[in-house]
Design goal:
The complex is a heterodimer of chains A (392) and B (113). With 392 residues, chain A is mostly beta strands. Chain A has a domain of 77 residues: Thrombin, subunit H, CATH 2.40.10.480. Chain A is built from one helix and 34 strands. In chain A, the strands form nine sheets. A four-stranded antiparallel sheet of chain A has the order 3-2-1-34, with no helix packed on it. Chain A starts with a helix and ends in a 9-residue tail after the last strand. The relative contact order of chain A is 0.12. Chain B is mainly alpha-helical and 113 residues long. Chain B has a single domain, classed as Cytochrome Bc1 Complex, Chain D, domain 2. In chain B, 51% of the residues lie in helices and 0% in strands. The longest helix of chain B is centred in the middle third of the chain and has 19 residues. Chain B is globular and about 35 Å long. Classes of the chains: A mainly beta (392), B mainly alpha (113). Chains A and B meet through loops of A and α2 of B.
Amino acid sequence: MKSLLTVLAALLLSACASPVLRGTGDLGIVIERATGSVAVVDSSAKSILGRVEGLGDLSHASAVYSRDGRYAYVFGRDGGLTKVDILERRIAKRIIQAGNSIGGAVSQDGRLVAAQNYQPGGVKVFDAETLELLADIPAAFEAGNGVRQFSKVVGLADVPGNKFAYALFDAGEIWIADLSQPREPKVTKFRNIGNQPYDGLVTPNGRHYIAGLFGEDGLALVDLWKPEQGAKKILANYGKGTEKLPVFKMPHLRGWAVAGGRAYLPAIGKHEVLVVDTTTWQEVGRIPVKGQPVFVMARPDGRQVWVNFAFPDYGQVQVIDTLEQKVVQTLAPGKAVLHMEFTPRGEHVWISARDDNRVVVYDTASFARLAELPVQNPSGIFFTSRAARIGF
Amino acid sequence: MARFPDRALAALFLCLLAPAAASAADPSPERMRELVRMVRQDCGSCHGLTLKGGLGPPLLPETLREKPAESLRYTVLLGRPGTPMPPWNAFMNEAEADWIVRQLIQGFPEETR
């Protein structure tokens, strides 16, 4: 009965909402993890346009966009993949594609959506239009005891050539799946890249794929222009000689920071941001911060890098000035800051404070608090500008 | 960092090694609410908000029932070195960890809002 009412209400709402003609360049969604809904937001008006409900378990959910910026593909923990029409604010299509999923990416040509799954471990590729399954690529590997197992897949990124790069947490491998023929994927595997890769990213130009390692110091790097060179280890000894602090939440690499020829990366078990030269891939600095970094994100112009933290330091956000190479601002947006998203050109940043049930909008030049939007347990914030970026 | 003082750790080890003490009283209702929220939200970032698993394994009655509660309590308090499971002893005492493990084995309560 209740769901019938919601459906009716949604129908009425969308009926009122439909006639206005508009683009989507300044729109986005905020995941409301407790209620299984997304809020559709307008980053110019700094307002909530409406809600779309019925997306299932959205803890840890993430979203990517169709290349026309109209549809959000939302990946839920329950394995749900929901295609949301953000203009009409309704679910265009929804499937349950796995037992446990954490994210995905859209291919270079916009025709494919890939989902990375923990359970069953692997990658599934769908037609972006219809969500028809086109390819299923189990992350099978041989464990130490010779038994065939399936690994959890992390760090999936779209890379040029209609390929997807990702890492296998349990196997310590990086795979690159070529989907130029969607029903016949060709997989290149890089083995022994390091212990427990926990997430990955591709540089904004699409050339380097990097997987962060949890089980050892350092990160694994693959030059996608020269894959024959294999994977190499960078920052291999960043924790040397010091004891690791506990990590209460895994950092995320996607979203990621390259600015002025340098990459800014979260250290694991250290309250530091590591700075790497992106031509030599050598460490050139470390910036002490308040806690275990989770997201380390460059403002689109690269002048600032914003950092949020794991439990118990997640009430704060710090801003690094990339010229000065140090923290220049510490903000307290609210309890349990889970995510940050810049407006397309970076004049504002939106920050979700889960336990205060709000999203806070800051001016990135003056650090003034511009707006607060009421959102139930907000987590990820995803603007349509992601549609145009390599890696998403 | 003063947050994880060695001495507190040592003391914790000592009391863990002591013969199973009679399980202390349950946490206060308010503390219970905090713990429920913490498990759902903060443990949930690895084990899933519904505790059906993520990077960490499921924490459901079916998967935990067969395992000794004592060792699960150790896991919660001290973590599992070499895996992403971190130690939580700076944020809860032994009785609270024990309560969490008992709830997990019975089927963990939902958050009340």
